[in-house]
Amino acid sequence: MKKIIIDTDPGIDDAMAILLAHASNEIDLVGITTTFGNTSIENSTRNALYLKDKFALQATVAQGVDVPLVLPASPPATAIHGNNGLGNINIPSEQTSQVINQLAHDYIINTVKAHPHEITLIAIGRLTNLALALSKAPEIASLVKEVIIMGGAFGFNGHSGNLTPFAEANVYGDPHAADIVVSANWPVTMVGLDVTQQSIMSTAYINDLKSKSSKYGAFIYDISEFYAKFYHADLGLDGFYVHDASAIIYAIAPELFTTRKGNIRVVTEGVAEGQTLFKESDRVFPIDEWSDRPKQKICTNVECDKLLNLYYNTM
Ligand code: BDR
Ligand code: CA
């Protein structure tokens, strides 16, 4: 079983990803660290604790910071995830579970050091907590097993951005943090829009899940109704893209994905702020601020049917 910490802003698709990790026999969900993004940091944390109570998760929950490293925070995505982050379902005001008394990035540092070479970090929100962990304890880079990021868009399969024409939301939300995380000397795989927008959970799929998964189906149906309405109104989709759960599925079944290796950079200012750039060739250019960076992996294709089946069968 892979020991995993999920860094997340739950968030409807985040909640679906967390539940997949919880349900999977391949994953030991050790911790959940929260970040701002889809909703406020307070809502993210409350929602993580709510999931922990409702589905008896064993994971420790640690709250993260509430602002990006450099830029001001962009407004929460209430049109996509609702005012409470979970599609405006009723959430009890008090949760039984509580956060631990460590900030998210300290929890990440301490847990990685306690389990050297065993922890996979899966980031499905802004990358602020991971960047803070690296800045405070750069030595964790060599102690983390793997870093899987739902974020970025490299233009494969026509997918370039969702928040701006050229930027994906998790990267745009803290581009400086994203640039630090992809430049560190640890093994990163980016599961970006290039693949997450290939897989769609249709209305029929969610209805079927509701009738077959006694444990999770009704909950997923309830939270995703709001999300599906947004996708229908915005893009005319029947259903919604599989963003965050794709990163969990990469951890479980990487063979479903086609990857390429190269240097990654994130644009941190200007009209292309938040764009992720990929240099695959080994050529060193006359002006080259790339070659000192480690080669990381990006996903360029996915076997959608198998991915959707894996989610369905696990739940
Ligand atoms: C990412 O942005 C958030 O809205 C989703 O939860 C996902 O992590 C997709 O761009
Ligand atoms: Ca997310």
Ligand roster: beta-D-ribofuranose, calcium ion
Give the strand order, joined by hyphens, for the main sheet. Answer: 3-2-1-4-5-6-11-9-10
Distance between the termini: 17 Å
| Assembly status | single chain
Class from secondary-structure proportions:
alpha/beta
Poorly predicted regions: none
Sheet-strand content, in percent, reads: 15-25%
Mean pLDDT: 97
Which bin fits the share of residues in helices?
25-40%
User: Which term fits the overall shape?
Assistant: globular
Number of strands: 11
Taking Cα atoms only, what radius of gyration do you get, to the nearest Å?
18 Å
Number of helices: 12
Sheet with the most strands, sense and barrel status? 9 strands, mixed
Helix-strand string:
EHEHEHHEHEHHEHEHHEHEEEH
Pfam family, one: IU_nuc_hydro
GO molecular function: purine nucleosidase activity
Protein name: Nucleoside hydrolase
Organism: Pseudoalteromonas citrea
Tell me about this structure:
- With 315 residues, the chain is of the alpha/beta class.
- 37% of the residues lie in helices and 18% in strands.
- It contains twelve helices and eleven strands.
- The chain has helices at residues 12-23, 41-55, 78-81, 104-114, 128-136, 169-172, 175-183, 193-196, 203-212, 217-235, 244-252, 304-314, and strands at residues 2-8, 27-34, 60-63, 119-123, 146-150, 188-191, 200-201, 240-241, 257-266, 276-279, 296-302.
- Strands 3-2-1-4-5-6-11-9-10 form a nine-stranded mixed beta sheet, sandwiched between helices. Strands 7-8 form a two-stranded antiparallel sheet.
- Helix 1 runs parallel beside helix 11 (244-252).
- The longest helix has 19 residues, at 217-235.
- The mean pLDDT is 97.
- The structure holds beta-D-ribofuranose and calcium ion.
- Beta-D-ribofuranose is lined by residues 11, 13-14, 38, 77, 80, 124-125, 150, 162, 168-170, 243-244.
